[in-house]
Write the structure tokens for this entry.
Amino acid sequence: MIDENASAAATTTVSHHHDASLYDDDGRPKRRGTVWTVSSHIITAVIGSGVLSVAWSIAQLGWIAGPIIMIFFSLVTLYTSYFLANCYRAGDPITGKRSYTYMEAIGNILGGKNVYFCGIIQYANLYGTTIGYTIGASLSMMAITKIHCIYSSEGKDPCIIYGNRYLMGFGIIQLGFSQLPDFHNISWLSILAAAMSFTYSIIGLILGIIKMAENGTVMGTLAGAKGELPIDKVWGIFLALGNIAFAYSYSFILIEIQDTIKSPFELKTMMFATRISIATTTTFYVLCGCIGYGAFGNSAPGNLLTAFDNPIWLIDIANLALVIHFVGAYQVYSQPLFAFVEEHASKRWPSLEIEHKVEIPFLPSFKLNKLRLVWRSFFVVVTTFISMLVPFFNDIMGVIGALGFWPLTVYFPVEMYIKQMKIQKWSEKWIGLQCLSMFCLLVTLAALVGSVVGVLLDLSKFKAFSSQL
């Protein structure tokens, strides 16, 4: 649950002696989110691992299908995000009952078992994404070390870099940031992370253009990479679909982001921010994907930044920006999970809400909550441990993207929109929306199969706790 300057535990009732101008219509302190803060949250959530793997995805699909499929996913995400934004308030878009989480929106509009199904998929997706970001950040830190090792040894040392200490280092960083109380308290981190997204994306573009100029030609083929066997080509295409689906995954935190917007402009602001964010991310994805594919052809790597080794200072900046971005994106995806558990725990054991003021010399004082300290630390430790067990960046991203794309990005937004707007069954609009949903289901199933096959193939060759670059 995302909340503006309030405990995630429960709605505060405005009593007669409070200044009503300080509170919104639901009794919570005034939300102050704008188009730019909302756009930064979305860009932080969307741009990241997706922009790294998009060149590899286009390499599996080829010059014809690759860009077309990228644009298809962007349009579907934009279209269904509009549906979801219309469902923030049940009934009237200005005065209707607010939903504070994706699950709550489904409960208010669809109800029944849909809530439980959504909860399982949404929170599994959120958790899986934090694992993916942990792996991605460690790869960038490993890349920095490897490049400096190769240069210092003048290429004589193969410089095999092992990943466990980098995975644990990122986990230690998240132990600190995870104690930030709620989404409102990480607005500055989202803005910083969004800036870092543009930084490493632009550097990737520049390096790709330089590489193409050095090659003297645009590499790649119309049909994309070939596998050793025909079935390998099929798995590659399916996995690419999963990676692209993941690249546009943010619908399951859209309601939480919308709940930060200043009233009464939630719908208008959210739709405008969505257009800005999807247009921005799609531009970067298509440019980075096409330039990366043009530079490396069918051998484009899963993490584009790992393919470059010169100039070293620019690559260091890009990888460092990527790590900073992942720090922020990890929090964007984990805060709804934190709030969900803490809300239910505090309802059952109210004493867990007690906050203790902590003062450290030379630093501002802060409030510490025992539940937040123990639960969030446990979350980070387990996430880091799993990342060390299965550090397969592309395959993990594909599985997460496939699992979440149809139910969270398409099915639930479509069904809620139909009910919210009272669209008549078997009308042209209803049939069109159902056809869109079924087509996206087929795409999701294909992506899921390819991604699972990729994980199984990697597991057959991999020894636990021995990731290396």
